[in-house]
Design brief:
The protein is an alpha/beta fold and 203 residues long. It has eight helices and nine strands. It has a five-stranded parallel β-sheet with strand order 2-7-1-8-9, sandwiched between helices. The protein has a four-stranded mixed β-sheet with strand order 4-3-6-5. Strand 5 and strand 6 form a beta hairpin. Helix 1 crosses helix 7 and helix 5 packs antiparallel against helix 6. It is globular, with a radius of gyration of 18 Å. The structure holds guanosine-5'-monophosphate (5GP). Guanosine-5'-monophosphate binds next to strand 5, strand 6 and helix 4.
Length: 203
Amino acid sequence: MSNIRKGRLIVVSGPSGSGKGTILSEVLRSPDYVYSVSATTRKPRDGEVHGKHYFFIDKADFEKGIENGGFIEYAEYNDNYYGTPYDFVNKNLSEGKNVILEIEVQGAMQIKKRFADALFIFVTPESRAELSDRLHSRGTEEEEVINRRLAIADREIPASFLYDYIIINERGKQQCAVEDFFSAVRAASLTPKSQYDILKTYF
Ligand code: 5GP
C-alpha cells in the first residue's frame, strides 16, 4: 500500500434505518478517519450529547453561522437546520485525515459543487421491505414517524445514482459493508485524478 496519503472528504448518506451509523462506528476505530460533528437546531434526543452527536444550537446562532460562512454546507430537513462546521473539516483535511460527513442528500449535493475530490457513498438495506422491517423492529417510534422516514427514503433513493458508490448493508452482513466502505475509499485513491501529484513528476 502506498505511504503517500492525503486527507479526503467522505460524504455518507442513506435512509434512517440503513445502518450507516453502525458501519461508521467501525470505520472510526481507525486513526485515519475523523467524524465531523454537525450543528443542528433540532432538540437533543435521549442520550445525545452536545459536542459528540451534534452541536445543539438555536436558530439565531445557526443563521449567524450561515452569514459568517461558518458552514461548508447546510440544509433544512424536517423543519430544522443541519450544517457542517467549516473549521473542523478544514483543519483535519490539512492534517491528512479522512473526514467523514454523515449528511443528507441536499447537503451532499452542495459538497459536490465545492469539493471536486470528495467521495460520495450511499448506504441502504437490500430492499425497501427490509428497511421497513428495521424501522418497525426498533419499536420506539410511532407508525406515523416510521411512515415519514419511509417517505423520505423513497425521495432519497433516486439521488443515490449521484453518488460514487452504493453499499448494500445486508442484514447480518455488517462486516461486509465495512469492508465495502474501505474498498470504496481505496478505489477512490487510485483514480488518475487522485494520483496526479505522482504523475506530474513525470511530466
Ligand atoms: P437526525 O435528526 O435523524 O439526527 O438527522 C436527520 C438527517 O440529517 C440525517 O439524514 C442526517 O444524516 C442529516 N444530517 C446530519 N447532520 C447534517 C449536516 O451537517 N448537514 C446536512 N445537510 N445533513 C445532516
